[in-house]
Amino acid sequence: MGFLAINYAIGTAATVICPADSNPQNFHIHNNSAHSVYVGGSGVTTTTGLLVLKQTTEEFYIVPGDTLYAISDGEDRDVRTIRWSK
User: Fold this and answer.
1) How many CB atoms lie within 10 A of CB 83?
2) Residue 44: is its pLDDT beyond 80?
3) Given this model, what pLDDT does residue 19 score?
4) Which of 37, 39, 61, 65 has the highest CB neighbour count under 10 A?
């Protein structure tokens, strides 16, 4: 099991923030920006995604083969993640 921490600049196009893995993954996302960010599947939008409020952290359990994406209503939203597979 290894930890992987990555910072992203999330914009108006859906961006992979947790790629698929053959093992289950624990995943934390911290929205370090002053704007909302939304997460979901490959078709995520600002109206269909799960809201991650500014300056908050959310935790997800990602099943094998699933991918998590993020999007925002503007450019360069600072998002920090950490994930580890089991």
Assistant:
1) 21
2) yes
3) 96
4) 37
